[in-house]
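2024-03-11 09:14:02 INFO receiving multi-entity request
2024-03-11 09:14:02 INFO entity count = two
2024-03-11 09:14:03 INFO echoing inputs for audit
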Amino acid sequence: MSTEARAGHFPAVDWNGGAFPYRVGHRKLGMWLFIVSDSLTFSALLMGYAYLRASNNWPTPFPFYPSIVFSSVMTFCLLSSSLTMVFGVSASSRGNKAGARKWILATIFFGLAFIVLHLIEWKHLIDEGLRPFYLPEHWAKVFTLNGTPPTALFGATFFTITGLHMFHVASGAVYLLVVAARVNKLKHEDIEISGLYWHFVDLVWMFVFPLIYIMSVDMHGALGH
Amino acid sequence: MSEHADEHFAGSNKLFISIWGWLVALTLVEIFLAYKTLPIQIMLTILLGLSIIKAALIVAYFMHLKFERLSLILTIVPMLVICICLLMVFFPDSFRSSGLRYQFKESPPVAPAPAEEP
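2024-03-11 09:21:47 INFO inference complete, emitting structure
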């Protein structure tokens, strides 16, 4: 970064065309704008969840073991995938395309591990009786407070938010697979852009995990786990 | 192609590993909070604080924004923060509809019907 950029100084000539005012290419700027809009999508969903949670009797059904421990392993997978991705981008910046491909494949591996673990967890909850608009019968009984049954919207928010995030991870894995396959043809900036998307998916999980999982921990052992 | 393309990707692998270490450590703090029983408001405050720190670490180092031009940072970050804060305009309505629910003073006269199964 140049000294003038550090000072945040805009030379007027930057905006007369023929230059990159932000010192990034248009594709990278496009990815940043996409990330901003996608953050608003997830923020709106999480705010909707907070709205419903504050206005309803909300069940807190996740036992520390296995639910929280299981989702912590998923978090660890996603954090590690971000590290391997950053190694891939760093290898590509040194012109080491083979190294970049290797690290990107490691990233895809962690991403797929996350999806598999997530699907196992979904299956477990669905088997227990959780649906988008219904709670398992024993949850409804246990979490009834002063005669008010817990809201069945728990399932709706849970499956919507984690489902949309899982969709992002899955599409990110496909995106990275294409990048890994064409790594020799791509410029360094293109690999960096795929890294931006992948880190964003990781970043969203940094909000989903505490708000959906940890805030729903069954603190008093109500379900008797 | 922009002059940026040939620029070296700032940050060493050692730096990235230490950032990853911090992210894992903060996650462990969150998991510890799930294990401890804390009042829900305190837990929410700490968890959101930790999440924002983690998000900032990811954006600054992994997404490389710290090493970009200040004008790009100023274009992206403040408006996003403002838009997200504006979403909180819905909370008064949420608390209002929570207050509309009938509060039983004692235990209710009859057991409520269990939730319908599909």
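2024-03-11 09:21:48 INFO post-check: Helices of chain A lie at 3-6, 26-54, 64-93, 97-128, 137-142, 153-181, 188-213.
2024-03-11 09:21:48 INFO post-check: Chain A has a mean pLDDT of 91.
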